[in-house]
Amino acid sequence: KALAERSGLSVSYLSEIEKGKKYPKPERLVELAAALEVPFDELVSLHVDEELTTLKAAFNSPLWRSFPFSLFGLESANLLALVAGDPQRGSALLRAVGEVGRSYDIHVEHFLLSALRAYQHLHGNFFDELEEAAVGFRESQGWLSGERIDAERLAAVLRRTWGYRLDDRKLASSPDLQGLRSVYVPGSPPTLFVNPRLMESQRAFVFAREIGYCSLELETRALSSPWLEVESFDQVSSNFESSYFAGALLMDRHRLTGDLERLFAAERWSAETLLEMMNAYGVTPETFLHRLTQIVPHVFGLGELFFLRFSANQGEEGFRLTKWLNTSEVAVPRGFGLSEHFCRRWPALQMLIKRQAELSEPAQRVVGAYRVHFLDDDVECFEISMARRMALQQETLSAVAVGFKVDAALRRTIRFWDDPAVRRVEVNLTCERCRLVDCEERVASASILERDIAQDRKARALSRLVSS
Fold this sequence. Notes:
The protein is an alpha+beta fold. It is 46% helix and 14% strand.
């Protein structure tokens, strides 16, 4: 009571501090120190008790320092305040999160890429400032909106405008680097090493993305493509922005909108028409389909979508999901923490399994359109899938897919959604969770589904026993 009078703090507040229920802010500590006639430093310590070491480690971790809290209207101090009220419980919570991450082999880069996907979802994967930057750059070069831009014209801009030195020999001569698409070395002049085994469409994207880095003045960047290690969210963000710029530069949104309107207005699905459209832009299947995830929701209002990229080595059973985006409510495969077998009914995986003979060269494509019915969610999506052989690792096959939820808006927009040539397939997330009993593609038993069913029976039996 005497301390309350001297410090100006309430008795109840001091009592809660004494009991460990409240932790005073620095300005309150100053008042307490003055009332107690002791230095401020005697009331604080840089050392933490053993039970709080997890809390200290979390706040000092690369994830905490690099996670983009500001994207979601937060500051790291906001989360610090959440655990400051009860550090022991906050430390226990962070320890639990860390245990989950280690159990599923989740690294800092997974958190950063997840943050990026959440940010894309928040903005409908359409960023007007990047679109306008690409349009402005195209106009500054005197390139028409419907004009195809090839790799050589882009390379000439890098040399002329930013003084780049381009080397297309060195990467192929290094056994350790010949799997990389490009390597950037800063300096005067800057040097961009480009793998000579890239296809023309891949070279165009590499140069367009490099122009994006320069034109958008992105300073933090990965030096190699693909990157060897994700170091910060700024690096992730710069790669995303420059890649978005590249896609918008190569595939002008006004021309693409007109092309898609004509494609969607057709009464029948035509793989040849889609391939002709993609080839007219001179881009890869991944660039083409990923660009659809930006334009189709914004222009046509089909916002519930997913994008998937699988890869597999020829002759092997395993499949890797190396890129994904999901703005829909349905469960689609995800890329980490899932030691289960992806449903082999997915059209993209079927292409990798059954149509390898059609992909003897990197320039060859396999294309298909499907109505994908998700068994557990009872939702249907219209999906376009493409597969090809990788240029740098020709023993590796890659398949990309983009899907849009079938609803009233899609039925009005894509006239051929129910064309008989668009085959309907039923899919699930993994074999371990699937209830189909006559599935020819099954490669593992429904162990997780069976476990859940058994658990539900026990719960219902227990409920009957308790209520009897």
